[in-house]
Structure prediction request, 334 residues.
Amino acid sequence: MPNSLLSKPMILVADDNEMNRLLLADILIAEGYDVIEAEDGDAALRAARDHAVDLAVLDVMMPGKTGFEVCRTLKSDAGSVYIPVVLVTGLTSVDERIQGIRAGAEDFLSKPVNKQELLARTRSLLRLKEFTDELENAETVVFSLALSIEAKDPYTKGHCDRLSSYSEALGRRLGLPGELCVALRRAGVVHDVGKIGVPEHVLLKKGPLTEEEWAIMKQHPATGERICHPLRSFRHVLPIIRHHHEKLDGTGYPDGLRGEEIPLTARILQVTDIYDALVTDRPYRAALSHESAIEIMRNEAARGWWDSHLIDEFELLLAEQNPAVRTIEVAHAF
Prediction:
């Protein structure tokens, strides 16, 4: 979507040749688009940083940073990764096209630029940007919803941020693919979004839940999965949301999965979730020490609830991040 419903799409045109730049700008402005011009690669990156750009049209051969380098930089930055890029080039070799694809370009235009081809590519890529922005807006709503749930309970302040960081770091330590590490980061925030369906008198109850209240609470993983299911970008997040309350012995919920039936990413998040709950204050007890928390988790792993290997790896991760945290030397019988 253009940067707002009332504004025209903003297109960045970067070319060191002023005549070429003005020609492209005139065509796009006549079609009703806003245009910002840049005379080289560095200026293009500054423009993308300072303006809400919806599409970048970059000449490949520019002084300083080339169009390839600008494209690569845009695609490596979370703030600009979804800006579609068209590379304008007089180069015709396959190798040059492959270099552009590897840099992340969505499309190419050959010099001299054909007006109708430029406008057709522009319309197509702006539609793509619109769909991407709608998806991003939907994700933002889900994240905001999850954080609003956290904010209801003063004892869980910062819990989502910590889980997000812990889980992604543990996933990277274990060598998980990048997309699963991203899923763990997102799941750290939205794993309990289904609690929106839990009445506040149950969600914030200080004492033990009744059988009926517990039945309501146990529905939140499935509710959270349903809320996030329409988001295609959450396909790796959904199993974490649904299964982070399962136990290895099959006594968890909502599906009673056992052992490796529980996705590894869900097992990672549950380890970090349990740890954070133990080392922070709760209405029914003060925060436990790191050593006490790890000991409790290992005891529960011995009962067949949690993945002991993940607990060990998480403890090592914490010790590496904070040398003051001491690993607990115990005999592992599991």
